[in-house]
Amino acid sequence: MDKFNTVLKIVQKQQTSLGFGLVALLTAGGEQIFSSVVFKCPCSGWNFSYGMVFLLVPALALLVLGYIMSNKTWKLFTGLCLRKSKLCHFKYFCASGVVFFQITTTAVVAPVSWIAVALLNGNYFECAMTGINVTVFTKHLCDGKSPQCLDELYKFPCGRATHVPLSDSNDVLATIRAESQVLGWLLIASIMVFNLLLTCVARCNSPVSYLQLKFWRVYAQRESDLLENYTADHAEKLAERNLKSFFQQTPPEPVTTPSNRAWEKISSLYRFSTRDHYYSILHKYVEKCHDPAEARDHRMSSVRSDGPDTANPAVLAFVDEGKMML
Q1: pTM assigned to the model
Q2: Where do transmembrane segments lie in this chain (predicted)?
């Protein structure tokens, strides 16, 4: 169990310490095992459906898992139904859409890796394309082959074609596998170029310098780690106090716990402002909460928890991430 927890902690920190390469590598390894152990092309009328399910459904599951494991997803959606009036505001809706897009760019790493590796492997695509019901494509595959090629195309992945020479069957499968691998490399290249363009645009419009951005990333990760530790320690102390009071039948010792309003305020999404110098919503709350001038002027309303009103610069998308939710 201790070893499992160690591995779990490594996975939780993958976005900041090991990067998206670890996610892609784990997904690729999983796809290889899945393809060799589980996948068996039926070589029937189910070829297309079976192959596409194995190609796309795991990717969809990984995408949903990516959303679930993101802290920012739950910061955005928790309590959203209680803010129906805000949802009708175009500015709020657009800002929320930008945040959701930032979440998606992170969550899409694993599913894209699955599809790319599956296409490079070719098994799923090969099975699906031998069962596709598109005359133009099947004629393209069987061009110059035996007349029975079209009728027995679905049997090729299993090598059960009885009226088609083995050389024709191998040529068709080689063509499909080559097309699959070309699509796989095109997908990888497209994603890398798209990611490079997004990163360049985000850095080009960064409101902070390169070194401050590095410091900001370190601060955000350390705050997330310490918040988790403080939360666990405080919860343990409160639980121990309550149990001690219950079993010993004594008055409970005073333990200071943040109010519901305080939790609500630090649970909102961070909003960047050129007028302030706060590195997180917690930093902003602490500074304003203990500033007598702010309290006297009733400016605490600037630390709100009703979601984003304006979109943050894309380069600061990491601020609300913290650790993945597992």
Answers
A1: 0.77
A2: 50-69, 90-116, 182-204
Helix axes 109-121, 20-37, angle to 10 degrees: 40
Kindly give, in sequence order, each residue whose CB lies less than 8 Å from that of residue 38, ignoring residues fewer than 6 positions away: none
Residues present in the chain in total: 326
Query: What are the DSSP calls for 66-114, one per residue?
Result: HHHT-HHHHHHHTTGGGGHHHHT-HHHHHHHHHHHHHHHHHHTHHHHHH
State the Cα–Cα distance between residues 111 and 60, nearest whole angstrom. Answer: 7
Residue 103 has pLDDT above 50, yes or no: yes
Helix H or strand E encompassing 248: helix 210-248
State the pLDDT at residue 323.
54
Q: Give helix then strand counts, H and E, for the chain.
A: 14, 0
Cβ-proximal residues to 25 (8 Å cutoff; 6+ apart), any chain? none
Measured CA to CA, the distance from residue 148 to residue 161 in angstroms comes to 9
